[in-house]
Amino acid sequence: AQKITQTQPGMFVQEKEAVTLDCTYDTSDPSYGLFWYKQPSSGEMIFLIYQGSYDQQNATEGRYSLNFQKARKSANLVISASQLGDSAMYFCAMIGVFRWTGTASKLTFGTGTRLQVTL
Amino acid sequence: EAGVAQSPRYKIIEKRQSVAFWCNPISGHATLYWYQQILGQGPKLLIQFQNNGVVDDSQLPKDRFSAERLKGVDSTLKIQPAKLEDSAVYLCASSLDGGLGTQYFGPGTRLLVL
């Protein structure tokens, strides 16, 4: 079974500053994928970035980057140059591939971090 | 490319009534998911379809919830009869072919059961 832990229920950051949202995970699957999603108050879940467990490089997408440290089982999201529109809930999630069957597990979410960007 | 469509966006019903939600996935996506997100929590998978077959419905309360994806495209999720604890956001997502593929979510349906 997979487990995602997000220890920061809420974070504040000033506009134009960088912020790191923490995510640790636990799995025994040999292969897995890590995702970050943004959920504004309107409710939709917006995909931000993906990191595969065998990817050599840390994933980047525009102002988003994923600081992947496999040995520490962490997959922190870094948002550079924060904007007011970044204020939202952020969820870390993962899917594993079962060792013996090769089938994928459910997408498991953490409890989320609420980010508030201030002027 | 059009995203995942869901309707209605909001629904208020009384307990013991029935309700249905509709989802249209991204064109060409074989895998469709229904999630329930209770306030303050991350989404929880209710059911996963691959084309029109069920892959995983282990967390679907089958005594009151049902879902179908008859032609492998659109899907409906039904609750009958609704309970107070069913108040949540119901999110539909789709991915190209399941597995480790990225899931893209629709705007969700906010359900309030009174």
Give short descriptive properties of this protein.
heterodimer; A: 119 residues; mainly beta; 6-stranded mixed sheet; 4-stranded antiparallel sheet; 12 strands; elongated; B: 114 residues; 7-stranded mixed sheet
> Tell me about the biggest sheet of chain A?
6 strands, mixed
Quaternary organisation of the protein chains: heterodimer
SS summary, helix count of chain B: 0
- Mean pLDDT over the full residue set of chain B: 94
Structural class of chain A: mainly beta
Fraction of helical residues of chain A: under 10%
For the record, give the distance between the C-alpha atoms at the N and C termini of chain A, rounded to a whole number. Answer: 41 Å
Low-confidence stretches of chain B: none
* Shape, per Cα inertia axes of chain B: globular
Question: Would you mind describing this structure in some detail?
Answer:
The complex is a heterodimer of chains A (119) and B (114). With 119 residues, chain A is mainly β. Helices cover 0% and strands 52% of the residues of chain A. In chain A, strand 7 (60-61) and strand 8 (64-69) form a beta hairpin. Chain A starts with a strand and ends with a strand. In chain A, 35% of the residues are buried. The model of chain A has no long low-confidence stretch (mean pLDDT 93). Chain B is globular and about 35 Å long. By secondary structure, chain B is mostly beta strands. In chain B, the strands form two sheets. In chain B, strands 2, 4, 5, 6, 9, 10 and 11 form a seven-stranded mixed β-sheet that branches. A four-stranded antiparallel β-sheet of chain B has the order 1-3-8-7, with no helix packed on it. Chain B is 0% helix and 48% strand. The termini of chain B are far apart. Classes of the chains: A mainly beta (119), B mainly beta (114). The A-B interface holds A 4, 31-33, 35, 37, 42-47, 50, 52, 91, 93, 95, 97, 104, 106-107, 109-112 and B 33, 40-45, 48, 56, 89, 91, 93, 98-100, 102-108, 110.
